[in-house]
Write a structure and sequence with these properties.
There is one protein chain. With 74 residues, this protein is of the alpha+beta class. The protein has a single domain, classed as Single Sheet (Rubrerythrin, domain 2), CATH 2.20.28. It contains three helices and three strands. The chain has a three-stranded antiparallel beta sheet, with no helix packed on it. A hairpin with a 5-residue loop joins strand 1 and strand 2. The longest helix has 8 residues.
């Protein structure tokens, strides 16, 4: 998955974690798409430089992906 569109379509959730204050929350992918563009990259290097913790304002953040796809059998 490389774009915001692909994560929205796949039902994924991307969580932001602040390493400074440990605040975390899921990103609103629809809001992100409206702000950055639906085909904007969704990799760590694409999103993290644009992020800041909403609680402490630190830029020391990370993202984690929770896939919305069912695991493949087999």
């Amino acid at each position: 998955m490389n774009t915001i569109r692909q994560h929205i379509t796949g039902g994924d959730t991307i969580w932001a974690y602040c390493d400074a204050c440990h605040h975390n929350r899921p990103l609103d992918l629809e809001e992100l798409a409206a702000k950055l563009g639906i085909d904007h990259g969704a990799l760590h290097a694409d999103l993290v430089p644009k992020m800041r913790c909403t609680k402490c304002r630190s830029k020391n953040v990370a993202i984690r992906l929770l896939s919305g796809r069912a695991p493949r059998a087999g």
